[in-house]
Amino acid sequence: MSKDERKEMIENIAERFTQMDDVDKSYIAGYMAGKQEERQKWEQQGKTAVATA
């Protein structure tokens, strides 16, 4: 996927997101926050495992 195609795809997604109602936006934002929290836990566990090895 070229840089221009990727940019266009992101713009399309952003436009669709802005047209959603607040309930749907809230759901997506909550999902993304949860994914970020899980990622931080995994990264922390990985750092702890390396430090103790």
What about the largest sheet? Answer: none
* Average pLDDT rating: 91
Count of alpha/pi helices: 2
Number of strands: 0
Model regions low in confidence, pLDDT < 50 over at least 5 residues: none
Cα(first) to Cα(last) distance is: 39 Å
Q: Give the C-alpha Rg.
A: 17 Å
Strand-pairing-aware structural class: mainly alpha
Query: What is the percent of helical residues?
Result: over 70%
- What is the element string, with H for helices and E for strands? HH
Quick structural summary:
The chain is mostly helical and 53 residues long. The chain is built from 2 helices and no strands. Helix content is 89%, strand content 0%.
Structure in words:
- This protein is mainly α and 53 residues long.
- It has a domain at 21-52.
- 89% of the residues lie in helices and 0% in strands.
- It contains two helices and no strands.
- It is flat.
- The model has no long low-confidence stretch (mean pLDDT 91).
Structure characteristics:
2 helices, 53 residues, single chain, mainly alpha
Strands, helices and their partners?
Blueprint lengths: L2 H16 L3 H31 L1
